[in-house]
Amino acid sequence: MPVLYGYFRSSCSWRVRIAFALKGIEYEQKSVNLIKDGGQQLTDQFKAINPMQQVPAVTIDGITLSQSLAIIQYIEETRPEPRLLPADPKQRGQVRIICDIIASGIQPLQNLYVLQKIGADKVQWAQHFINRGFEALEPILKQTAGKYCIGDEISMADICLVPQVYNAERFKVDMSQFPTIRRLNQTLIEIDAFKATHPSCQPDTPDDLQA
Amino acid sequence: MPVLYGYFRSSCSWRVRIAFALKGIEYEQKSVNLIKDGGQQLTDQFKAINPMQQVPAVTIDGITLSQSLAIIQYIEETRPEPRLLPADPKQRGQVRIICDIIASGIQPLQNLYVLQKIGADKVQWAQHFINRGFEALEPILKQTAGKYCIGDEISMADICLVPQVYNAERFKVDMSQFPTIRRLNQTLIEIDAFKATHPSCQPDTPDDLQA
Questions:
Q1: Domain B89-194 is in which class?
Q2: What is the mean pLDDT of residues B8-34?
Q3: Mean pLDDT computed over A66-91
């Protein structure tokens, strides 16, 4: 059975949880507490699993993978049903643009490690980069969206969007500026694979944050 | 013919130039000067091409793509020869881990926009994040590398590595700490597709920076 090393509140861990859930793949969760003891991701034990000292990491089929999009694409290529990337290359391109705007253009700039380095101005910094990314995503999604980010089929773009909106809400970004993103998130968050994997109901979610 | 909107010194633009060159695809370059006039990527005209206001962007087959890895994967899926991703899913996973460590874990934290916001400490900031990423890449590549990043076949991992080493050198990162990365870079930089696309010899390279 695959093992996911993750943390309830890590948006990149949540991406992988959603992918497993959509595919109906059972997996074991091992919690890596990013706060406790100065951060369990910094131990030598975890560094051997992921030299980047970040979650998520996954052991599957005898190998260890890190980086959430690399993990999800490995799952997609080895367990193709239901698919998380459309068949058409142009649509696949659209999915990947949305994934990469989030995974390269937003999330890395507002993750825990970076905000710890920013210090006192961290909320303003996070808001700035989430706003900048969402200002780009909003007109793109307005063009590509149907029921979901790309037409009416759930894809990796949706898997990236929902955890990023969760982060935006944590940092009190004004979501009324982004009606398409907000509408997509509201639809997706009601789907079982997104709901059951939400940070508020994971094995390592502290009692006071449980839904 | 595809059009690449890029900038000679942008490491993400260079990734796309290498991919086109390896595939033998002719393309037109349109320069978006990231410095001049406060940054040509910020104009309304360019915002219509890429709402993220970043290079690269590519128009190809009647569509416009942004985000370098999304662009390269579109090219890979529509022009499969020579391949830039191995056939084996586990090896593809390894390629993508390396790409994503660079594209999500290093480059976004040391790009022009972020460094402008960091201000006076920008060199130290860039060095810190490049060092952190290379400290993770070095042991991974030590395991996966043959002649190139993953075995003896050039892949997207090599396409991401070389421009990131170029950035490391610009920020005077001590590369002697990373013997595997340095050795791979020295091998790759001699290959035509990497040499001909180097920032020192592009149509928009200023005279004083020409090789």
A1: mainly alpha
A2: 98
A3: 98
- Same fold for the domain at B3-82 and the one at B89-194? no
Beta bridge partners of B145: B151
**Position B210 pLDDT exceeds 90:** no
CB A154 within 8 A of CB A148: yes
Q: By CA distance, what is B105's nearest residue in A?
A: A108
What is the identity of the amino acid at A94? Q
Query: Comparing A211 with A45, which gets the higher pLDDT?
Result: A45
3-state SS track over chain A:
CCEEEECCCCHHHHHHHHHHHHHCCCCEEEECCCCHHHCHHHCHHHHHHCCCCCCCEEEECCEEEECHHHHHHHHHHHCCCCCCCCCCHHHHHHHHHHHHHHHHHCHHHCCHHHHHHHHHHHHHHHHHHHHHHHHHHHHHHHHHECCCCCECCCCHHHHHHHHHHHHHHHCCCCHHHCHHHHHHHHHHCCCHHHHCCCHHHCCCCCHHHCC
CB contact under 8 A, A67 and B133: no
pLDDT tens for A166-200 read 999 999 999 999 999 999 999 999 999 999 999 99
Q: Which two tokens stand for residue A118?
A: 């920013």
Domain B3-82 has CATH 3.40.30.10: yes
Token pair recorded at residue B11 = 């490491």
Q: Is there a contact between B105 and A52 if contact means CB atoms under 8 Å apart?
A: yes
Q: Could you report the predicted ipTM of this complex, rounded to two decimals?
A: 0.97
User: How many cross-chain Cβ pairs, A to B, lie less than 8 Å apart?
Assistant: 111
Show the tokens assigned to A208: 């006071």
Give the domain ranges of chain A: 3-82, 89-194
pLDDT for the residue B211: 77
- Please, are residues B91 and B68 in contact by the beta-carbon 8 Å criterion? no
